[in-house]
Design goal:
Structural class: alpha/beta
Shape: globular
Largest sheet: 8 strands, parallel, barrel
Number of strands: 13
Strand order of the largest sheet: 6-7-8-9-10-11-12-13
Distance between the termini: 28 Å
Strand content: 5-15%
Order of helices and strands: HEEHEEEEHEHHEHEHHEEHEHEH
Number of helices: 11
Length: 419
């Protein structure tokens, strides 16, 4: 999804059923400076992918406190589990150092993609050891961490308190806390730079990384992945997810051109900026010396993988997995579609549903998705471990102690029942 604030308000499910996406927050509003816990919503275009509504932002006083806590790299860790595995692709499975088949089953922890660029901090809510333990108590073994390239690179318009070395230190500290609890960290590029005014444009008035763009950009994204890869290449327990939800297919009606753009980048039809394709980003990771597992999403907001195998990037390390996102309002949201479009991919490469969710404040849809993916031995992560509304989020929890929403009950009980 887009991140909250990646939280875009959801349009009626019937309208959104024709699009596929993850949730993302919108830009902060003047009223967002209030410390209230209410959620504000902005109306998304009828043809926009699913986005959750955005929660109110904290007051300036609480922002400083939050940023301080989020950046504490010296906070003591209390390991209570074995170290997470160093994953690699083996055929269509993920295996650890001993060749044992593994699955990634967990949640997303949104915030790092939007808080910094909006000037409110680094993470949305606590990321201390107690909050990570609450995640682990759901029997989660993987957490996906959405990031913002402008914050990581410390571009000039980002508050230095929340960008550059401070941002990187906070991400590294969260990764360490997750690993101390035996949880696999998945670091993912969510929001990126580039002016985009075409179909499904979410912030056409700015080039800044304040919303989901259709593709990564050649100006900053390769540098982002070079830096991320250099930061974590010595820790192969960290997984890289190249880009949240590509949608070059919304910029052009030529699906072949969209998939070529997805892989090769360059001057893409309907996109205003020079694109960095998945091959370029993968090359940047490998050139930095990182052999970590890399997740590569499809198009249509990661909901369409029909030509993923045809355009699969070349990886000298042979360590790739396909990434897919699904919500009840996406185009591919039925078992018949799963069997037709996903099964051929799952038969050949490891498969990770990086975001699963629904806007019903219930869990009927993800129950079906999890059952189908369980039968295939695939991986999945719920969107999202944040205290937004279960409909406009959709949020799994109502507090950071891990109290589930009606939606979150489904994922929590399923994961605990698998132990």
């Amino acid at each position: 999804m887009r991140a909250p604030p990646r939280l875009y308000a959801l349009v009626a499910a019937a309208v959104l059923s024709v699009v596929g996406t993850a949730l993302v927050p919108t830009g902060a509003t003047a009223s967002a400076a209030s410390a209230s816990a209410t959620t504000t919503a902005s109306v998304a275009p009828a043809d926009a992918p699913s986005k959750r509504s955005m929660p109110s932002m904290p007051s300036k006083a609480s922002k400083a406190s939050k940023a301080s806590k989020a950046s504490k790299a010296t906070e003591p860790l209390r390991p209570n589990a074995a170290a997470p595995p160093k994953l690699r692709a083996s055929g269509n499975k993920l295996v650890d150092e001993n060749g044992t088949t593994r699955r990634l089953l967990g949640v997303n922890r949104s915030g790092g993609e939007f808080m910094c660029v909006q000037g409110y901090g680094i993470f949305d809510g606590p990321v201390d050891d107690a909050s990570v333990k609450a995640i682990a108590d759901w029997k989660v073994n993987a957490v996906r961490i959405p990031l913002n390239e402008e914050c990581w690179l410390g571009l000039s318009h980002i508050d230095p308190a929340y960008g550059g070395t401070n941002y990187i230190a906070a991400v590294k500290a969260l990764v360490a806390r997750l690993e101390a609890h035996g949880i696999t960290p998945i670091v993912e590029l969510h929001w990126s730079h580039g002016t985009y005014t075409g179909g499904d444009s979410h912030c056409p008035d700015t080039a800044y990384a304040t919303c989901q763009k259709p593709m990564p950009n050649a100006q900053y994204t390769p540098a982002f992945w070079t830096s991320v890869a250099q930061t974590f290449k010595s820790d192969q327990a960290v997984v890289f997810d190249l880009f949240n939800e590509p949608f070059p297919d919304r910029a052009t009606s030529d699906l072949t051109a969209a998939w070529k753009c997805w892989r090769d980048g360059g001057s893409c039809p309907g996109i205003d900026f020079q694109v960095a394709g998945m091959q370029t980003l993968l090359n940047a990771v490998r050139a930095a010396g990182a052999k970590n597992l890399v997740l590569i999403p499809g198009v249509a907001y990661s909901n369409d993988l029909r030509q993923w195998l045809t355009y699969k990037p070349n990886d000298p390390a042979g360590n790739l997995a396909a990434a897919w996102h699904t919500y009840n309002f996406n185009t591919c949201s039925s078992e018949s579609c799963f069997n037709e479009q996903l099964a051929p991919v799952i038969a050949q490469v490891p498969f990770v549903a990086g975001e699963i969710g629904e806007n019903t404040c219930s869990h009927g849809y993800i129950d079906r998705v999890m059952a189908w993916l369980d039968a295939k031995g695939a991986s999945y992560l719920g969107w999202t471990w944040n205290t937004w509304d279960c409909s406009s989020g959709p949020s799994l929890i109502s507090d950071y102690n891990g109290t589930p929403t009606n939606f979150g009950v489904g994922l929590r009980d399923h994961l605990k029942g698998m132990q």
